């Protein structure tokens, strides 16, 4: 285990280009999920800080240097952000691990890949184009302007804080918006490090990017309801997303929501078995199940069920639990104490429902490599799709295995869920691959792979998994609005209240 200093690091928040404490002067502790010990102090912001941040963002959008920049100049700023992330990627990954307990292998891969979002949207910044539109009035000239929506509020989760912030921040800045970011109270440190090492040094005018740290009810709700905010982008649980949507709707704010999932990972008997087993393991256990796209429902065709489960359990048993900062660790802790208790409660629910636990099923001891908040990789067989363990998002290392007969049965089970974020299909049939992709009600379908993402491909969910899309060229549309312009090149309008007669015409 690497050295972990005992002195608590004290952070400040970032508003209007300045580092500052919360208006109240309060701070709260953030904890290392591996040891369970506090390691840093975070400003506890409230409505007063939200007001300062939103007003700063509005000034920067309305009258500051940011709207005066050309689109090309904004693109150059995004490229500087990307270069700075590249320079500090390793350090940012280490902070992520310290704050959220996920594996250094995963966090380092994310921070090294993050620059690509800023490079991609830097290239789109000066491709935001309107259009000249022919209309059925020959004396009028018409065109469409594409303009930034204004101040955007981002509320980001604790599982992949910097990556999921980048998915929002890069297109918003490319569009010309200004932002206020509220990170999870469990994982604020990495964003504050990001602000110090990247945003503060990238030449962004004051007020364009602001951060308020604190708790949801005290900081998040005032941000969502603030009159200066025009758009809210939220990633998190479905229940909280519904609340965000409700609050934002009261003042007609634009909203994008990336919410929960209960994704089916569907394995047919014509798959390459070893590849599918590896895909099932990585789909649920690689991130300790703490990802919205986790393949938490494994659908196995009856003819290969027993053989597949045997191979799956054998592979999952080899998983090395331990210190997430070590490259050899394969399963880390659950990030937050409430989430740890939730995962354990769902294991009990599954057992009570009659599912058969064939691996794990409880906390991991220190002898097994566990630390403060470790849950053993857990596999249930004999799961019926109507069980709570199959219908509700656990967000932990818990896999439910469900049998299916044929393609039609697999589609029926896969779609019989409130969510629709992602799905996986394992088959060597090209026809089946395309058929399944067309019929699965999910925003992403992977065939013979799982958890692949790219800045070029749109990401988002059907049904209760959210609204809108992140990534890809269409993501920038979420931060733009259209303005129609009519120019009359013909005679003046005249007085509409004077009736023309034959004698006067």
Describe this structure in words.
Helices cover 36% and strands 20% of the residues. The protein has 15 helices and 23 strands. The protein has helices at 47-62, 65-68, 71-100, 104-113, 115-125, 161-175, 189-197, 216-225, 238-249, 273-284, 305-317, 337-353, 388-391, 407-415, 430-439, and strands spanning 9-10, 13-15, 18-20, 27-31, 38-43, 131-132, 140-148, 151-155, 178-182, 209-211, 229-235, 254-258, 264-267, 297-301, 356-359, 378-381, 398-404, 419-420, 422-426, 444-447, 462-463, 466-467, 480-488. A 7-stranded mixed β-sheet has the order 15-16-17-14-13-19-20, sandwiched between helices. It has a 6-stranded mixed β-sheet with strand order 10-9-8-11-12-22, sandwiched between helices. It has a 3-stranded mixed β-sheet with strand order 1-5-4, covered by helices on one side. Helix 6 (161-175) links the parallel strand 8 and strand 9 (178-182). It is globular, with a radius of gyration of 25 Å. The mean pLDDT is 95.
Any guess at the CATH architecture of the largest domain?
3-Layer(aba) Sandwich
The largest sheet is:
7 strands, mixed
CATH topology name of the largest domain, in short, is Aldehyde Dehydrogenase, Chain A, domain 1
- Our Rg estimate from Cα atoms comes to 25 Å
Strand order of the largest sheet: 15-16-17-14-13-19-20
Regarding CATH, which class of the largest domain? Alpha Beta
Poorly predicted segments: none
> How far apart are the termini?
94 Å
- How many E strands? 23
Rounded mean pLDDT score: 95
Query: Given the structure, what is the number of helices?
Result: 15
